[in-house]
């Protein structure tokens, strides 16, 4: 089982502030290859598996990223990405705003979709 953390953020600053304490790999694309994000991930206990971009941020987080980056681990990033694609296919539309009502809709959609998957596992339905 691969744990996935989901939250809506509107900026890098807000994202960094909401990173929970944890451990293990933090898989992310090049958009998260920034000094502040990488350093915060390491401080919170994660090993950042972030695809390096052409711009090389300084800091201890990027050194950890360079030391541990492994393409075979990075490929698993798609597991979490597919979940969001499946929600779009299941429920249609993409949300254009980030208000509290949208957060509630996203949470409800996640719950419904997870129940659907759990029922598939239990009863073998497709």
Q: Measure the end-to-end span.
A: 20 Å
Number of helices: 6
Helicity level, as a percent range? 40-55%
The tally of strands reads 2
| Largest beta sheet: strand ordering | 1-2
**Regions with little confidence, pLDDT below 50 for 5+ residues:** none
Rg is 16 Å
Give a concise summary.
The chain has 126 residues and is mainly α.
What would you say this structure looks like, in words?
With 126 residues, the protein is mainly alpha-helical. It has one domain. It is built from six helices and two strands. Strands 1-2 form a two-stranded parallel sheet. Helix 2 packs across helix 3. The radius of gyration is 16 Å and the shape is globular. The mean pLDDT is 77.
Task: Considering the chains and any ligands shown, give keywords for the structure.
single chain, mainly alpha, 6 helices, 53% helix
Summarize the SSE layout with pairings.
Elements: H1 12-17, E1 24-28, H2 35-43, E2 46-50, H3 60-68, H4 71-74, H5 77-91, H6 100-123
Parallel strand pairs: 1-2
């Amino acid at each position: 089982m691969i744990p996935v953390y989901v939250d809506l953020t509107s900026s890098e600053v807000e994202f960094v502030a909401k990173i929970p304490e944890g451990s293990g790999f933090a898989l992310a694309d090049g958009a998260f290859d920034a000094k502040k994000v990488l350093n915060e991930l390491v401080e919170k206990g994660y090993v950042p598996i972030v695809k390096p971009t052409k711009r090389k941020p300084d800091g201890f987080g990027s050194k950890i990223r360079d030391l541990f980056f492994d393409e075979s681990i990075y490929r698993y990033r798609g597991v979490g990405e597919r979940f969001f694609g499946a929600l779009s296919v299941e429920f249609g539309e993409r949300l254009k705003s980030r208000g509290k009502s949208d957060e509630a809709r996203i949470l409800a959609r996640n719950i419904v979709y997870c129940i659907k998957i759990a029922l598939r596992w239990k009863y073998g339905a497709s």
